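Hello,

Following up on my earlier ticket. Below are the two sequence lines again, exactly as submitted.
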Amino acid sequence: MDKIVSYRHKSISPIIICLHYSGSLNRIKPWFLRGCLLKLLPFFFLEAFRSHVSYEVKDDVAVIRINNPDSKVNTLSIPMQREMAEVMNEVWANGAVKSVVLISSKPGCFIAGADINMIQACRSAEEVTALSQEGQKMFEKIEKSPIPIVAAINGSCLGGGLEFALACQYRVATKSRKTVLGTPEVMLGLLPGAGGTQRLPKMVGLPSAFDVMLTGRNIRADKAKKMGLVHQLVDPLGPGLKDSDVRTVEYLEEVAVGFAKGIVNKSIPLTKRKGIMQKLQDYAMGIPFVRQQIYKTVTKRVMNQTKGLYPAPLKIIECVKAGLEKGSEAGYLEESQNFGKLAMTPESKALVGLYQGQVACKKNRFGTPEREVKNLAILGAGLMGAGIAQVTVDKGVNVILKDTATEGLSRGQDQVYKGFNAKVKKKSITSFERDTTMSCLTGQLDYSGFERVDMVIEAVFEDLSIKHKVLKEVEAVTPPHCIFATNTSGLPIKDIAAASKRPENVIGMHYFSPVDKMQLLEIITTDKTSKDTTASAVALGLKQGKIIIVVKDGPGFYTTRCLSPMLAELLRLLQEGVEPKKLDLLTTSFGLPVGAVILADEVGIDVAAHVGKTMTKAFGSRLDGGNIEVVTTMVEKGFTGRKAGKGFYIYEKGSKSRNINPAAEEILKKFKLSAPPSVSSDSDVQYRLVSRFVNEALLCLQEGILSNPMEGDIGAVFGLGFPPFLGGPFRFVDAFGADKLVQKMKKYEEVYGNQFTACQLLQDHAKDSSKKFYK
Amino acid sequence: MDTQVFIIIIIIIIIIVSHHVEGGHFNVKIKSLAFKCSMQTKSKKTLAKPGVKNIVLVEGVRTPFLLSGTIYNDFMAHDLARAALLGLLNKTSLPKDAVDYIVYGTVIQEVKTSNVAREAALGAGISEKIPAHTVTMACISANQAITTAVGLIAAGQCDVVVAGGVETMSDMPIRHSRKMRKTMLTLNKAKTLSQRLTLLSKIRLGYLTPELPALTEFSTNETMGHSADRLTAAFGVSRREQDEFAFRSHSLAKKAQDAGLLSDVLSVNVPGKGIVSKDNGIRPSSMEQLEKLKPVFIKPHGTITPASSSFLTDGASAVLLMSEEKALAMGYKPKAYLRDFVFVSQDPKDQLLLGPSYATPEVLEKSGITLDDIDVFEFHEAFAGQILANLKAMDSDWFAQTCMGRKSKVGVLPIEKLNLWGGSLSLGHPFGATGARLVTAAVNRLKKEGGQYALVAACAAGGQVVMKVIQNYFFI
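Thanks for your patience. The regenerated structure is below:
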């Protein structure tokens, strides 16, 4: 039942899985080219025509409105920056203006950040550094403005947008759920390059500043107020004489204008009175020794979590340090130079690529389905079933959770409840919202109400005859339009669909455990699956907040198929006597979020054995590796992995340290193989695991299981934990060099045979170095 | 032509007949027709419905409404409720065994007297054979009590019902924290000393934090004032408009008080503190003073101040309702008919206090009359901004179309007919008691002003609202 990939969230560093991109980031749109065209226009019309920034003077307050034309979001593009500079100069020159309010005309977006394409278009670090310096200069002017500037924030205020706001004298934000502040640059392998690394520590203190910049997480308005990022909060309004979104922005503007006037007439103080804790913290930060200690701890933590594989967090620490220790001039210089350097790193390029892939995988390329899924039934209330219920029931979909036994059902419902209750504790929802959400979930043991469901997702035991049985039962009670989705991790969908009266309605929806944490959803279509069925499944997945790849049917589809040879190799390495702890270390230092042996325990040794067998059956000796007997013996002894408390490791409740399971070691000894010295160095161990994974991924593209390399990369990173800084197997081949990889594989092939034979696609790329998966 | 002639003839006959009847003891038919001819200029509808009993309000009273923590400081809720009940009995000379049923509304319940209606009735010396129950529906609890009474009479269960409401905010149940309560309850069950000591040793300092009765909306966790401030902002109600409305409320209340129009106010003897016979929250100040006040709910940029919010109040109210036949048979002169009513509810977050806008057209349509037909409006003033937001909502086509699903706006509510004797902002707002005050005020104003129809509205926590149409009872 457990899916092939599962890991405990806690053990994953926030930085490595920082690819928990927020939705708001998605809104950064390419629009550099158009920007270039628009740039030329003012030469003809001078100030008469401005498309991005406008302003009006209300009493003695200049209200500056930002509104990127033809886009849902505002970005700090070149034309926007230029128009902003013009407008600011006009405002400053106008003696009648005593203060300024800066606001966006777009509901739901203040400024979503800098234009990524603007950075990508640069060919050298110097060019990017120059961009950064321009931004720094502009915000310095804003910071030194002779009249107060109030930033009125509604919606996403991220990256450069936040840096802009930070340069203003006062910040007012709406408490809307859409309002988030943050510096997500680190997730793109970059740093806040327009003064962010310099202003943030001064504004919120060193520890909070590091937290904000190193995690890149979104900060809600109320938290931002507590941290001191914003001065005042404004409540969102309901419908009145206008639409609530429109009126809320108007209200924000009215309130901000009030504050601007208040600042001028001194009734509103610019500095907040500091509490005792704040004063203490400031005092402590004044001591150089304390600061040094903080840099040290933060660096250590970053090294721990990133294994030094991600350069951006370290550069952020350097910039902050330079600013505080050597003065702001040095700090700004360091920031712009590091920004330039980072933009040119392969890590940043890989992360930006992933980001773009993720944006693409959050769209439904199959169009709008004819019918929205309003009622969903899930069969099987196990970890997966309950997890799917949890991510669906709060999206306005009524969910039936059906199991065959009361115990299982009750455990599943509890799991969903716990999921929402955790959100209550984190204050991201209220207890009332939890309760109303839970009211949309019905737990039951029979098929009552199935005549109303639009889709059924089955998450029952991985056995074809059981799947056939439930499929027939479901089709007997559901309406003809009802879609039957199977959450199998390995069984070919067409085999399951063989029992269906309506094979066009059968589709695979492969979720990853834990469903509420893992972002990937792999959707599998057969030759018979209709386009509308696919569109419906994708639409539901998007509603659930998933990143979606759509692949063709086949044994193991894409993800399970890539993982399978890697696990087979892992088993062989264990048999060859590599210590589990060492293997875990080698794999994590390669960039995997969890060690490969722990991963096997998490997946479940029984599941691994089952998948291993079916995959070998389908693909023959190519998918061989270690002796399958090892795992079957382990399963016989009950060492099925984490869920049983024993696998390769022993898991004890409440204990964080893991000890090797001596009984498993015994089994390994029994099946001991000798390690051929020519392919057993640490690096060889790593590449034996990775090359089989990567080769299988390429094979999936070659065979048409994958429709493009981008989905392959997204699937590997978000579903299997392929190192994000490498960008996925395809980008890895591009960057590492197909020829180099083939060379390594040849060496292994000599020892182990066809398991390491590079696929045709990889060989083609190796032969012709101009062939790349990404241009 | 024939029918017109016929009606005229009938009217003439009725006039003749009515002159021959003594003491206002008409039968129903004659009365309603008589009223028709007396109000030629108005709509001629009686609003009586075939097969539905006519229910009349005989009298309504209330204790003075006093600021919480003042003279009623030592009273419990049932003391106030009893005072109102006794006052009503005295004023109407109703024998203590002539009541069939008693219903009271209250919001924050004193745990010891959770059925406060029963305790008040027993305390007032009403026959113990007469049942009583308590209802709760936030600020419209007394309205709920009244409509419950109407239901009992209409269903033929009772003929004479006292309905009312009570609230004291001078005292309210403050509880131990949940953890502490849990410990204490388990302690009750502990058998041995060591078990008890173990339990006691588990008590932490944090357990001692008391729990105040929530004044926030449970579902949204927002206080009503906060929601109201957002509402005023949504409708663009300015601070000045709100201050002016608050000023109006206090000025009108003062005028009414001075002119002796608040005839429903009883004199209550408070042991040790003397007799009170006046509301003490009416404080007409000046616009200048109102402008100085700071916002209380949304700081610093909100618009609702203490002056434009109704204040915490203690008080009780009661009305005597009867079937028309019974009232007439007992020799009473009913003051008014209670006609149609509706309860509606909506989104407790953004439209918490916007109910009157929704309910007004609904109840008018039910009665078959229009806004123009109404002579007296008595709307509960939770906040000045809330009343003004409702007025704006009713006058907006956008709101009608987008939020209410109506073709066009409800219309302009004539403010010159609204709350002319003050409202909750100035008279006070004892949550459970306000509903009966509104009804009595509407009835007394109809009598005084000679109007025909009154419309009573009150909004309540939970986004609920009640709307009542009251029809004057005319005698010829």
